[in-house]
């Protein structure tokens, strides 16, 4: 017999599928354990070896928990809506649903590209997924429930008194009996008060407009990240360095009417909930910073140019500050360029400069503006505000360091107490609109601002003189409240989440419009399925792609989608043209796995009550302020509404590190004309030996009869990524394959090293198709087997650390598996015996049982693989073939290398799968030493060793040592002055 991984693995993968080995039951007497992976987006590129890292770790843990007797739910699905499929549809004319299906199931797309298929790739690695529960967020039977959840959000408001979401009908009841004066809700700013009589007298449309100001999902004009190149709004985490992460298109800030989610209602609960979950501190801190809780006060400054207006028309600049005690140090004010008052307070003289600045700022994302702490820029509006106490005019500037989405979009600048304000004031010192810095601290600020909250007394601060931060804050808030120009407030950085995307490939909203007001389609008529469109680009007049649909209107009589040209705004109305963002379907998917085939509910109460929440979630840390925050928000909302059984969705979170690729580079010579491209080997590039390169270039130009190359010119080089598949283990480039890779390279010229070889440069980078450094798991599985891949990925290093991929170590892991097999069989067949195990056999086994169990529980998977290697080496040295050792060893290794474990289990005569066999019990007695090999020393120098029982007394040890022939020989008839004995450690004869 020989170890043939391809044959063995195909056999057991088929067995698992046919026998539904990993199918979880919703009503089991076993304790439950729910292990979840962040489900992948199914791109056409398929998996590379970096993708399965977290999946392998979760699979090891899932298999281990099954061995421990748990009913394990370990599902998998696909986050299959998204922009990449739509962009591909625009480029190729293929339907996104078609390409998505091929990407998942495999096959050939209409462009003739052969797609491996995510499902086949995942199966090939041997994951213990319960495929009977697979979900795809782009399937109507899934997104009908996403649409249903959206309707629940629309029909809810957040009651601050009960601190939870409640049905909108309870709010309507309050309005109709009390008005809104005493309603304590999370809602829009500046809501006008009305009585019960006024509410009841309002027309229905007016009532709906008011309710939109309270609903948890609502329509509002919002500052968004608009990407013209992609034709859609982007979330902050979809933007990198001011351009779209996908495609690198310019992103600008603009106002659009959008659906938004009132996630800000849950800010405090999202913050406090972090104390109750087992997540890494770095992820928790990311969320805390994103939520950004601040305690301070709001202050209202009158707009100076409108002081002559009636009080009812007076406009105010509202600011939130964490340092209200510094109000007498206000030197100027700064508004976000997008602030609605900018256009109103800007003077004619400043208008052109202000508008130019706003145009420039619109091309920078919020994230870019937040991160840029070095650049100082701003423009004076020409307008002034009035100080609430001194009544002095305060110049109003705009600056891009102030964000419209944070606080009120305005700051009261106190340069003496804030470094950024200090730098701003000094940068524009002496210019119109910039006053001298006011110092309100008994400290020197000639060199820097004084930002501490202690160790000072306020000066030049009127009624605050002599007070510290705490007393000054309390006093000023009280005085602001007296004059009705401020109050104490807790503020959060967390803004409501924009929930609209101007694209096709996403969940349709279950919304139609009557007189411009949104109406929800009744849940019984869901799903509202994406219509067919001819093209996936926006319409000629700028509407989203759904504006191209011919059948996209709602008939309220037949409750069906009908032709768009039938819209009469009487019984047939237009449907929403935007679609939901990518995070809609991923914000609740773990619950669907609990009851994936329920047609009437997203999951039954029984299923939800049994599984409760995810016990272990493994995924990337890059989702800290996106998916992980949104999903907590949706879970808390569904808990409020009586659907989710727990407040938090994920008990424990592990973030796997990234597997990095080893990129390869060729170096193209720049500045040459009229000849094929020239590439120099990496050693020349690194040594910067220009004399040699120049000499070689001169020869090449002479060969092509190009004159005029006698003058020295500046040589430049351009590193270019090259596909790692055409580079061998010695970093030598396959020149033939390279020249055939692109037409422009077919006649390329290579300046090689002294051995006549072209050696590429190497660099560790993120593994990516664009960097040509992708290694597919399929190749590894085909050559070495999935068990080798699984063990190797776990062996690379700690799960949570980034590590480079290096194929050099794979053969060693493959060799280990062959050595493991040789304990069980040789070329002639099974060699396992029923011989009783030796003490050393048992010690090796139980040392491994203990180590592996501890490692899995502690997610230290790499050290388990090391222990397997140690154990197999020891058992091989011991010539162990005992069933009593090898049978439990197969179980212990099963979570990591399940295929060979199943095969060995079967060869040992067992029936059924090894997957649910009890994990071996560690017996400490086998690690307890009964004897000790003592070093016997004479005057501190070890001369020989002797093995003695550990239960001997000092006297007994001394008697045995003194009678030993080797001791007698060493002493040569002399009597030692002293015999030092430490039982279990040393024996030393002195003198």
UniProtKB/TrEMBL annotation:
Domain Leucyl-tRNA synthetase editing: 288-480
One GO BP annotation of this record: leucyl-tRNA aminoacylation
Pfam family, one: Anticodon_1
Boundaries of every Aminoacyl-tRNA synthetase class Ia domain copy: 11-155, 762-792
Motif 'KMSKS' region: positions: 766-770
Subcellular location: Cytoplasm
List of residues binding ATP: 769
Chief location category: cytoplasm
Family, as annotated: Belongs to the class-I aminoacyl-tRNA synthetase family.
Protein name: Leucine--tRNA ligase
Organism phylogeny: Bacteria, Pseudomonadati, Bacteroidota, Flavobacteriia, Flavobacteriales
Recorded name of the encoding gene: leuS
